[in-house]
Each structure stands twice: as structure tokens, then as C-alpha cells.
User: Fold this.
Amino acid sequence: MRKSSRKPFHFLKDGLIAALILVMGTLIAAKLDGINQERFTGRFSAVDGDTLAYDGKRLRLIGIDAPEMSQNCMSNGAEWPCGAQAKEYLKMLLQTGAVECSGKDRDRYKRLLVRCSIGDKDIAGEMVAGGFAVTTEYFLFSGEQALAQARRAGIWAGTFENPRDWRREHKAADMDVPLAGVISLVRHVLGW
Assistant:
């Protein structure tokens, strides 16, 4: 009988040790992951609605996509410069307190991908909550986006094209312009 009463205790002890090892491993991995991060504090400026400038460097906010600077949105049947307004909103946020940013990865344009905060407020989350950016991650800032949609804040006050789709469409249009110019020149020279 003694052996059967010790087995449950033995499994409990082994389970507890395994759980502690798992927790310790997670803590060590999190610490090592933060080692290579670059950290910045000080004065930042807004380049557009999701990009900051700091000491000559460009920093891209992780998890959001703001309208492009020349992008317009619709509200009450009229166009408004939502891209320029997103930049102004970010500029206003940056003036509300001490900004801290950190990141370690870069995007395809060589911008450092960062998470930035002012106190306990995440700047990217504030951009989404204000209605001046959309979340690019399913769980990240989804609550803030739902709040902005419910309040019909910023871009949610009317209709807008997703910034990613807007960029794709305008990049294709920009590529067509040189070809159209060449065709026009050929027609002019040949008299067509």
C-alpha cells in the first residue's frame, strides 16, 4: 500500500519540476530576446502616420498601417486628407510626454521596427484607437480598432481604402505613367 500512495506524490513532484523548468526557460528566452533590442528616448518627429524620425533614423511602428501622406478618405460625401491628418495626429501624440521606443528587426526599407510608448500608453495603439491607423496583426490592437469603429473615429467616419491596397494601386499607376509617356513620344515622333 505504501508504494501506491507514493506514486501520486512522485508524479506531482515531477510535474511541478517540469513546470518550473518550463517557466525558467521562458524567462531566459525573453531576457535573451531583449538583449539585441535598440532603445531610444528623447525627441521624435512624425514622418507620416506610422513612421517616426529620431536622430536621422527612420523608425516604423509595429502592428499598424496608417493612410499614406497623399491618401484621401471619404466622410459625409467629401474627401479629406486622411494621410496628412494621420501624420498630424501622431505629431500631436509625440508632444504629450516622454517617448520611449525599442526594437530589433528591420523592414524591407531598412527602417527599425519599434514599439513606442508614452508612459503606459502604446503609441501605435493610440493611433488605432484615434481612428488614424488600422491594425495589421489579428490580436494586436484589435480592441482599439473596434473602439474606433464603434465611435466612427477618424477613417471610420466614412469610407477609406486600406493603406496597403492604396499603395498597391498607386504603385501600379506610377509604373504605367512612364510607359504611357514612351508610347506618347513614339506616337508624336511617328505622327500616329
